[in-house]
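JOB MANIFEST
job_type = single_chain_structure
chain_count = 1
residues = 159
[input]
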Amino acid sequence: MSQAIRKSTSGVSRRASRGRTPSGRPNPIDVHVGGRVRLRRTLLGMSQEKLGEALGLTFQQVQKYERGANRIGASRLYDLSRVLDVPVSYFFEDMDEELMAASPRHMVRATEDPPTFDDGTMVQRETLELVRAYYRIRDPEVRKRVQELARVLGPIDKA
C-alpha cells in the first residue's frame, strides 16, 4: 500500500488526515476556496499565469489551487488576498451548512451567540475598524448618537 494512504495509528488514513475525504477526493472546503480564487481572478480579468507570477508560482500550481487539488496554506491565502484585493474572509463566503458538514473534519459555523468581551472581541478586526471609524467622527454629538443607535440595535441586556 502506498505511503500516502497508509493507515496511521489512529486508524485514519494519512490522506484523510491531510484534508482529503476518505475516498481521496479533495476537501470540499478546499474546493470552495479554490473556486473563490478562480471567481475573483476571473472578475479581475487576470490570467492564471499572471496570478502565478504575482505569487511566485507556476500557472499549473494556480490551477491546482483553483480545483482544490492542493490545499492553500495560511500564508499563501494571505498573499492571494493581497494580490486579488479582497479580505481573507472572502474565500470562505457563501459556504453553506451542507458544504461545511461535508468536510472530513466536520467543520461547523461558529455559534450565533453574541460575543463576550473575554473571547477576544476587542482584538477582532471588525471591532477595531468600528472603533477607528467611531473616533474619526469629529462631532461629539454625532458620536453620541451613533453610540445610542448601536445600543438600541443590539439585544436588550438583562444583566
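[summary]
The helical segments are 14-17, 28-43, 48-55, 59-67, 74-83, 97-101, 125-136, 140-153.
The mean pLDDT is 78.
exit_status = 0
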